[in-house]
Write a sequence for this structure.
């Protein structure tokens, strides 16, 4: 094949006037329309002189054109770099610079802020707004609706997804064509997707879940998506009767359960509900089954690996577990110190290997070597165990990470900002239980002796540099942080002390 990912996900639909995207206003984008738009965008990039392997950064609202931008990059052999729409200018500067992006596609409202940054970093700027308008589609409109697909090999890079790190510096996870394609094909089979499926898509498309799981699986199966700009419970309830499947983070399911209009009659005709990106409480799983008769299928993945495990489609979907390793994925539980495989049933770090595992972090060989072993096993940073029936349980994290509403937040990034503020000696940022987001961010600040730092001014500083979803819900002052004998801050003690702050 000339370009396996494009051919298999997109090319197979050439010339088909079948529905691909059902938009909220009732408009339908067919496969053929969609491919035409993608080809037009690919032509724009080719004419601007972009070469295969160049990076295209995109911080754009969810729209059919935004998805076509992804398809265009695959077709033109460009590396697609989707970015959370909540990222601030400071955060974007780092991504553009680190990736060496040649083009930045952004919403028109952000152009004035981003243009000088992009110019300084040698990147061109195009705009793409949520309604499809902007300079990108203006140029695309004059282009042919066909494009000679650029040849790619399975091992060539298709996308960079940035993931934060425990040092506070984000790393670009390099994903190949094969990583994405192998996972999409496996998930289609495991979850029995067909061309009759209509997926209710309310996830963002700048992360693995909404882009590579939901969209790629639908494309590989030839199905269609009810393509909603965001998760809005009223709209989701209205559209549910037209869907056969839904994918979501646990917050989607707790919000649905919190609404009396979400009844058994509404949910029963659905074929499948899938959850991931954060732990689904066993209690949510049970409540969901009581309300709807459906057992949510929970799976486990990462930006670096796509999906690793899944509960079975046909067998028992066990609450509080993430099921079995997917076909082709090897999973082992090892001792964090020695790296040795632990006896069955013991808790240790989760390591995975398979065609889904990324190629490494962009221009960060040491970080790659620290997490990706030479034999191909990736150290996930998650702690788990395998029960006597083979189900994988995730019991915690070996990495300092908070997951809020499915978004990952690395405390170090916030601590670095807090520590710089006047009158602050040090800080500790922790995740505490939250009824809607699962976990939320709490910032604990230790003042320099005799000083009383201004917490409001501190929040303003955080707002200027970090995306909204990373902001602490609350900042509190504490005289000193608990430490162990090695001097390491004992966040577990802080998490325990403040665990009821937002619940109960
Ligand atoms: C929005 N806000 C948040 C979050 N989302 N704060 C913390 N955590 C969040 N996740 C902010 C908003 O900016 C707003 O700020 C305030 O919180 C309340 O907003 P609300 O209207 O309640 O939020 P929303 O717009 O309804 O969004 C909540 C959401 C959304 C629907 C849960 O965050 C979402 O779609 N999450 C999915 C994330 C996802 O796709 N993760 C997959 C990553 P203000 O009040 O100031 O306006 S991929 C992955 O993890 C791996 C690979 C995997 O396994 O899938
Ligand atoms: P990301 O960096 O966005 O790819 O997030 C990956 C992390 O999300 C994993 O390392 C896990 O900690 C977490 N995660 C994803 N799916 C699940 C799940 N079903 N249960 C618990 N944690 C999950």
């Amino acid at each position: 094949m000339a370009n396996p990912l494009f051919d298999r996900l997109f090319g197979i639909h050439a010339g088909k006037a079948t529905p691909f995207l059902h938009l909220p206003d009732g408009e339908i984008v067919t496969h053929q329309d969609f491919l035409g738009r993608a080809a037009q965008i690919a032509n724009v990039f080719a004419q601007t002189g972009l070469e295969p392997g160049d990076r295209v950064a995109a911080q754009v609202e969810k729209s059919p054109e935004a998805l076509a931008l992804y398809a265009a990059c695959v077709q033109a052999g460009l590396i697609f770099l989707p970015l959370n729409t909540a990222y601030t200018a400071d955060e974007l500067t780092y991504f553009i610079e680190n990736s060496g992006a040649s083009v930045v596609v952004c919403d028109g409202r952000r152009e004035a802020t981003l243009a000088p940054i992009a110019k300084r970093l040698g990147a061109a700027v195009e705009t793409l707004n949520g309604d499809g308008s902007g300079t990108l589609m203006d140029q695309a409109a004059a282009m042919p609706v066909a494009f000679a697909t650029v040849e790619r090999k399975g091992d060539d890079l298709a996308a960079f997804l940035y993931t934060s790190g425990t040092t506070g510096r984000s790393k670009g996870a390099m994903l190949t064509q094969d990583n994405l394609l192998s996972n999409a094909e496996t998930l289609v089979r495991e979850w029995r997707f067909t061309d009759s499926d209509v997926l209710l898509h309310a996830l963002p498309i700048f992360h693995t879940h909404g882009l590579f799981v939901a969209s790629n699986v639908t494309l590989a199966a030839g199905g269609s998506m009810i393509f909603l700009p965001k998760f809005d419970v009223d709209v989701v309830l209205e559209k549910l009767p037209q869907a056969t499947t839904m994918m979501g983070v646990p917050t989607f399911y707790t919000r649905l359960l919190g609404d009396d209009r979400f009844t058994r009659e509404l949910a029963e005709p659905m074929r499948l509900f899938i959850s991931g990106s954060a732990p689904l409480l066993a209690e949510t799983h049970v409540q969901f089954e009581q309300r709807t008769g459906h057992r949510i299928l929970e799976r486990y993945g990462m930006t670096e690996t796509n999906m690793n495990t899944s509960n079975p489609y046909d067998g028992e979907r066990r609450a509080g577990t993430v099921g079995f390793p997917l076909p082709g994925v090897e999973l082992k539980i090892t001792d964090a110190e020695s790296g040795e495989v632990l006896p069955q049933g013991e808790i240790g770090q989760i390591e995975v290997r398979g065609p889904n595992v990324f190629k490494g972090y962009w221009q960060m060989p040491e970080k790659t070597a620290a997490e990706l072993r030479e034999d191909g096993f990736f150290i996930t940073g998650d702690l788990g165990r395998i029960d006597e029936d083979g189900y994988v349980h995730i019991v915690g994290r070996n990495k300092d990470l908070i997951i809020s509403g499915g978004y990952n937040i690395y405390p170090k990034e916030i601590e670095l900002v807090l520590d710089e503020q006047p009158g602050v000696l040090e800080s500790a940022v922790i995740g505490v239980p939250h009824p809607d987001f699962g976990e939320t961010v709490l910032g604990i600040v230790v003042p320099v002796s005799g000083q009383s730092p201004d917490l409001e001014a501190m929040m303003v500083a955080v707002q200027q540099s970090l995306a909204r979803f990373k902001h602490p819900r609350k900042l509190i002052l504490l005289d000193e942080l608990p430490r162990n004998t090695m001097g390491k801050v004992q966040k577990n003690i802080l998490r325990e002390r403040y665990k009821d702050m937002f619940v109960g």
Q: What stands out?
A: The pocket of methylmalonyl-coenzyme A (ligand 1) is lined by residues 203-204, 207-210, 230-231, 249, 251, 276-277, 301-303, 404-407, 437, 468-469 (CB under 6 Å). The longest strand covers residues 424-434. Residues 31-47 form the longest helix (17 residues).
